[in-house]
Please model this.
Amino acid sequence: MIWLRSLVFNILFMTVTALASIIAMALLPFHQRHIRHFIRGWARIIIWLMRLVCGIRVKVTGLEHIAPGAAIIASKHQSAFDTFVWPALIAQPSYVLKRELLDLPFWGRAARHSGAVAVDRDGGGAALRAMVRDAKRVLDEGRPLVIFPEGTRSAPGDKVPYQPGVAALVTGSNAPCYPVATNSGQHWGRRAFQKKPGVIAISILPALPAGLARRPLMETLESQIEAETARLMAQA
Model:
């Protein structure tokens, strides 16, 4: 039954996403906020389909921690689910994403127009500086920015080194940084066909203390995210 429900969901997910990407092209001549509103609607449809077809519910705690305005959302990354849930949760967010994703037909153009911040993972220091510069534009607009400190998806229980980009963002701006844990990989696995029923938990922790230097910032961020993620997975 899980296999059949997963098949139906995957077909619906790809169909709805493909149609949404094509429709989004009509919004390119207009201000970015219109395409961001459109993406919000698409994300909510996918989350609704997850519950209806796969029996996957989403539970979010700590959303009240995120103050209005500029914010850095530093999230654990276990699943493709993490890449689209945030527009459904908070207003007008942008993502830090791999540069090659912007080359995808239709979707890439929509992501670029929505204000996504691209990073070349092989570009070294110059790429990091460019990412910080582009991210600062988002924060200066008073909008939240979602970044995955690991830089890639990790399977539940795996340890992936945290990348320094998030520290560069936090120390280069006055925006608060909120650690986020999740167990999403237990239900929508990395490159997994099957979507397992249950509850995807997202736990938003209070902002990190202001003024931390890079090393203690990274240590605090990683320890908080990993400890809370372990708790969520054990609870599930």
Q: What stands out?
A: The domain at 2-235 is CATH 3.40.1130 (Glycerol-3-phosphate (1)-acyltransferase). The first strand starts at residue 56 and ends at 61. The chain has seven helices and seven strands. The two ends are 21 Å apart (CA to CA).
